[in-house]
Amino acid sequence: MPQADPTASPASRLPLPGSGHAPLLLAMIVFLVTLFATYSAWESARRSAWEQLRETFDYRTRDMGYSIERRMAVYEQVLRGARGYLRGSVALSRADFAEYYRTLRLDQYFPGLEAIGIATAIPPGGLAVHERGVRAEGFPHYAVSPETPRDTYTAIAHIEPFSGRNLRAFGYDMFSEPVRRAAMIAARDSGQAALSGKVVLVQEGAGGSQAGVLMYLPVYRKGMPVATVEQRRAAIAGWVYAPFRMNDLMRGVSGIAVPQLEIAIYDGEQAVPDALLYQSPSTRSGPAPFERTQRLAMGGRTWLVAMRPDASLLATLDTTRPLLIALTGTGLGFLLALVVWLLATERRRALQLAEGMTHELRESHDRIAAEQQRIRVILENAYDGFVAIDEAGRITDWNAQATRIFGLAAADAIGRPVETLLPEPRRAAFRAGFEGFRRGGPCALLGPPVETEVLHASGRRVPAELAVALPPDGGAAGASVFVRDITPRREAEAREQQRQQRLDEAREGLARAQKLEAVGKLTGGVAHDFNNILHIISANVQLMLRAEGPMNKKRLHSILDAVDRGAKLAGQLLAFARRQPLHPTVVDVSQLLERVDSLLLRAAGDSITVERSAPPELWPTLVDPNQLENVLLNLVINARDAMDGAGTIALRLANVTVDAEAAQADPELTPGDYVRVEVSDTGQGMPREVMERAFEPFFTTKPEGKGTGLGLSMAHGFVRQSGGHIRLASTPGQGTTVTIYLPRHVAPALRGTAEAEAGA
Predict the structure, then answer these.
(1) What does pTM read for this prediction?
(2) Three-state DSSP class for 670?
(3) What CA–CA distance (Å, rounded) separates 235 from 191?
(4) What is the rounded CA–CA span in Å between residue 598 and residue 609?
(5) pLDDT tens per residue across span 376-435
(6) DSSP-assigned letters across all residues of 184-197
(7) What is the CA angle 737-742-744, rounded to 5?
(8) Cα separation of 15 and 343, whole Å?
């Protein structure tokens, strides 16, 4: 009896070709197993697609509820603004109320707001007085309606826009109707906004059928207590209110869920026909697979919002993936069954073929996986953000740089419409362009990169550069968007612009300094020679005074006075040229100001207020105190002349430290510690062309005979000769500020010496 070969492979023990129906039966079993696995995968994909659709529906409904609540909260704020405008009184002119309405532009920015009006509470017995008052304003036929007698009267005395169907509400007593009265009482007693139940607005007319609601906010008389319900009832002056037509209101709600939901809104907790406020048209055939109800509490009332998906949302159900799984699984099952049949019929050839196919498939799979991994690594480490979108405009891929730019994780971004990454004004244009591209039209985004703004998750706008590319097959499956954050480039450009501006200002300042330096050298030389001549004249005149008669002495005294004035002028020129002899000592500027306070007050005049401020520990400085007094006196006189005898002069002292960065704004100011002296006035100020020449000698804007034009030039020369810096800032019509920086002296101030000098 022959023995079985233990080394034989399982395939060698299969029935030989042609041995009955075994190969066909084996192929059928494999095919049925493959079909079962395909069905399981198809069912899982189908459930996943429906679950994703349900999640999208839930997100849309939550957004819809939030949008309604947010819109009603905005309208409540509009009424609060109107109440604040009234300031506790409903008696205002119609022109003022109309101007208030036009200023807010409520008809443009708040769609759904039918009008804004004021309901006046008419005191008992005051109906006739109220009607006569309104008729006297130009409405001879005005009357409060309805005319049935009742205990309490109110009237719509103001309503804007005062035209069209809003005229029907003029004079209407809303307190006479139970639904409106309940809301008005709730608002009056609580002090908060109150929303009415379902009503037909007076503006609808007799044949109106559109449902509406009204929102009320009480207006209490100014100065009356409103702590308790009784006090609020006694203090009520009226209500500001806004009527809403529900169809118009829902058109103004800007939630992203509006185009994909069928919405029904009911007043109250029950979805009954009599409570129906709004019903959107249905675009779906057959029963809805999902339904969600949401209760919204607003203004003391509850709205029941019932939402179902419409045809456009149901159309987003992903049926492609389950179909592909079914077709692919069936095809693979057939191929696998065919392979098994071939293996069973032609064992050796089939085994070789299967091994070759398996090897090729593995290599192909490995190559594809390696390529995908390589592309993923490139995209994840790219400098630009990468966003892939499908033909419906939804995000399908997202890299790490996109997460950094937009502040959204990949899990949060994938599946969202791509236009949500753009600011609100650009979304509609992008969607329109993308829809045209999806229908086969040209893509306006293709071409060189464009600069625009994208929206960060925090709401911040990020400047970015966008480049759009299509897949190699022509873009039928969507597009790829590369996003580059150009914030660093914009900041660098801004810094370069600021640097260039500071450089230009520094060049202008250097040119002015060089100009003043040249004029100073010339002035100093002239003043020095002129001063020498004056010394000779003065010496000779004094010698002649000893020998001449009385008449000649009078003339010589006149000559000597002229010589003194010339010497003073030469001293001022030398001060500007920084060549005057100085006698610097350690000075406490705050004590110096106290010493010359009376002199400064006399120079300023009685009608001018002089203010002084100084820190308690002012640093000392090394300057000539007499020259500093002259500089401060000249600055106070200039300030007095600039104010025409009325205004305020402020003398402020401070310790400041100028660092290298602050010194870049002014090349003449070196870093270090300074005592800052500011002299400010509230006068006429200087234009730019006058400021540029203010430090030039003999330049003045005063009338002839009222100034030599040497005050600021002398101050400039003295401060620069003392190692300090002087700045001039002025605005026409607002005043002028002269700022002096005197170097800090490292040794402590000799207060005893300063006091001794003050006594002398």
Answers:
(1) 0.43
(2) coil
(3) 11
(4) 13
(5) 777 667 778 888 888 777 888 888 888 888 888 888 888 888 888 888 777 777 777 777
(6) HHHHHHHSS-EE--
(7) 140
(8) 11
